[in-house]
UniProtKB/TrEMBL annotation, chain A:
<feature type="transmembrane region" description="Helical">
    <location>
        <begin position="71"/>
        <end position="94"/>
    </location>
</feature>
<dbReference type="InterPro" id="IPR035973">
    <property type="entry name" value="Cyt_c_oxidase_su3-like_sf"/>
</dbReference>
<keyword id="KW-1133">Transmembrane helix</keyword>
<feature type="transmembrane region" description="Helical">
    <location>
        <begin position="205"/>
        <end position="223"/>
    </location>
</feature>
<dbReference type="InterPro" id="IPR013833">
    <property type="entry name" value="Cyt_c_oxidase_su3_a-hlx"/>
</dbReference>
<comment type="similarity">
    <text>Belongs to the cytochrome c oxidase subunit 3 family.</text>
</comment>
<feature type="transmembrane region" description="Helical">
    <location>
        <begin position="34"/>
        <end position="51"/>
    </location>
</feature>
<dbReference type="Pfam" id="PF00510">
    <property type="entry name" value="COX3"/>
</dbReference>
<feature type="transmembrane region" description="Helical">
    <location>
        <begin position="115"/>
        <end position="135"/>
    </location>
</feature>
TrEMBL record, chain B:
<keyword id="KW-0812">Transmembrane</keyword>
<feature type="transmembrane region" description="Helical">
    <location>
        <begin position="12"/>
        <end position="30"/>
    </location>
</feature>
<keyword id="KW-0472">Membrane</keyword>
<keyword id="KW-1133">Transmembrane helix</keyword>
<dbReference type="InterPro" id="IPR005171">
    <property type="entry name" value="Cyt_c_oxidase_su4_prok"/>
</dbReference>
<dbReference type="Pfam" id="PF03626">
    <property type="entry name" value="COX4_pro"/>
</dbReference>
<feature type="transmembrane region" description="Helical">
    <location>
        <begin position="72"/>
        <end position="90"/>
    </location>
</feature>
<feature type="transmembrane region" description="Helical">
    <location>
        <begin position="42"/>
        <end position="60"/>
    </location>
</feature>
<keyword id="KW-1003">Cell membrane</keyword>
Length: 224, 104
């Protein structure tokens, strides 16, 4: 095994070849973690297809695309601030990713109490993100009159793409909040004391992925 | 089990990455706030986006410490997405030009 470790450092390709050709499991990780990676890879394809369809309708429409900077502006204490709600949502999601990363760290150190509280904090931040999204949707539907099939501010495709992409992302965040709450509670009860705490890292992978998708939505939908 | 990802990293590493992500998000927000336009805007948005994505994937999701086989599993299939995006961009240009010609 020490020899194997040595080849890992000398050539990445050699390590890949030996992983695939040697008489052993190719991916040296808990099966749940590998399955989560494969799920996330498939999810990458789904979100990529959504964003690609957004690119396509935005490039092909001859109607004016609404300025997201203005659509998502808020007036706070008399000041008109562009895109501020989305910026706050971005910071909240990044913060939740940070607390999740620390939860994983404490889980491997065996500190169950800190893991539990950090995971719950992550879930609360995620829930507040969904809450703000609900506020944003309400504002667009009720105040601006935007529908999946119509948009008084310009290109009708803006409505369809907005509700589809942010809706699907919001669904992922909501599922993540439930997932986090369940795993956090099981950590607290001691269900993983014997099995080990890989599940916290697996949950973390899902949560970071949700944050990662938001990075792309933020750049392409809100800023572009 | 996997000696690579069980490696312990100090909490300070995560706090540093967290700060970096905050700074990068602020910078990309400022691109919009100061209404930078045109090619500079798109370049800045993409640069900040890829830096943030890299930090999240590399550090938070621990991919930097995974073995090469895992990296291949994660980064080879998305090449198909890249090809698809390029094809759709070409197609979109074609559709747009046709709409300009026949609708207006």
């Amino acid at each position: 095994m020490s020899n194997n470790k040595h080849t890992d450092q000398t050539s990445s390709w050699q390590s890949a070849v030996s992983d695939w050709s040697a008489d052993k499991e190719t991916f040296n990780m808990p099966w749940g973690k590998l399955m989560m990676w494969i799920f996330l890879l498939s999810d990458t394809f789904i979100f990529s297809i959504f964003l690609t369809s957004y690119m396509k309708v935005r490039m092909t429409t001859t109607a004016d695309w609404p300025s997201s900077s203005e659509v998502f502006a808020l007036t706070i204490a008399g000041n008109h601030i562009p895109l501020v709600l989305i910026a706050i949502m971005t910071f909240i999601l990044i913060t939740s990713s940070g607390t999740m990363a620390m939860a994983v760290n404490f889980a491997y150190k065996g500190d169950k109490s800190k893991t539990f509280y950090l995971m719950i904090l992550t879930a609360v931040l995620g829930a507040s993100f969904v809450g703000m999204q609900a506020f944003e949707w309400t504002k667009l539907i009720v105040d601006e009159g935007i529908r999946p099939w119509a948009n008084p501010l310009g290109a009708a495709q803006f409505g369809s793409i907005f509700f589809m992409i942010t809706g699907f992302h919001g669904l992922h965040v909501s599922c993540g909040v439930i997932y986090l709450a369940i795993v956090a509670n099981k950590v607290r009860k001691g269900d993983y004391d014997k099995k080990g705490f890989h599940i916290v890292e697996i949950t973390g992978l899902y949560w970071h992925f949700v944050d990662l998708v938001w990075v792309f939505i933020f750049a392409f939908f809100y800023l572009w | 089990m996997s000696q690579s990802s069980d490696e312990q990293h100090p909490i300070s590493l995560y706090l540093k990455i967290w700060c970096l992500l905050f700074v990068l998000s602020t910078l990309s927000y400022l691109v919009d706030y100061f209404q930078v336009q045109g090619i500079v805007r798109w370049t800045l948005i993409l640069v900040f986006m890829f830096l943030k994505a890299g930090l999240i994937i590399g550090i938070f999701m621990h991919v930097s410490w995974e073995k090469y086989s895992v990296k291949l599993l994660l980064f080879v299939p998305p090449i198909a997405i890249l090809v698809f995006i390029i094809l759709m961009a070409i197609e979109a240009d074609y559709t747009y030009l046709n709409r300009l010609t026949f609708w207006q």
